[in-house]
Fold this sequence. Notes:
The protein is α+β, with helices and mostly antiparallel strands. It has helices at about 5-40, 60-70, 75-90, 90-100, 105-115, and strands at about 50, 150, 150-155, 160-165, 170-175, 185-195, 200-205. The protein has a domain at about 50-205: Nuclear Transport Factor 2, Chain: A (Roll). The protein has five helices and seven strands. Strands 3, 4, 5, 6 and 7 form a five-stranded antiparallel β-sheet that branches. Strands 1-2 form a two-stranded antiparallel sheet. The longest helix is centred in the first third of the chain and has 40 residues, at about 5-40.
Amino acid sequence: MKKKxxxxxxxxxxxxxxxxxxxxAQIRGIGEKVKSGVSNAASKTVSEKVxxxxxxxxxEEFRTLQAEIGxxxxxxxxxxxxxxxxxxxxxxxxxxxxxxxxxxxxxGSVTNRLNELYRENDTYARPYIVAAxxxxxxxxxxxxxxxxxxxxxxxxxTKTDQRSQILKGVVKYVQLxxxxxxxxxxxxxxxxxxxxxxxxxxxxPAILTQCKEIDFDSSxxxxxxx
Length: 226
């Protein structure tokens, strides 16, 4: 083999080696950025800024509360729990409030599920499911939450906002912390639809699944919510 050809082959081999090293470095760099992004997302601060003193008794009171907090995703989650508890107390009033805080595509599944959870004299029922979502409530204390009733919320660290053509808005993914389930983070998807003032719940099966029963040796019975 002529020297000129040998030098050419050596140069090509060296270039390939350098190129490979450069690509490997780029891949490592991308991996480090991804890990960093996941780490930063997972450490998103939990907010406890959404709280109420008592559950509204009428649709008018619910509308007043919605005007105060319904323009935020966090407030929308609180309103969902409020409406769920109102539905337990009075289905007619509660359904109207749920209709104000849910997309039309989600309303039916919520009321159907609540009818199961609120059945009387049924071991499957969970009349305290809303109480289980508030700070301080747990199976060992009869799901009696701290006052004022406060939610621990964060944006889902694994998801980003998603445009929805069907819902005509941008969906935000909120997570609610509760001691009432083995998996404490419960997902609630909310959306502010085009032209609407308030957020609405688009999907929330995680807060409609059975929470754990009150412990048989609980320090207290469930006292209900004010």
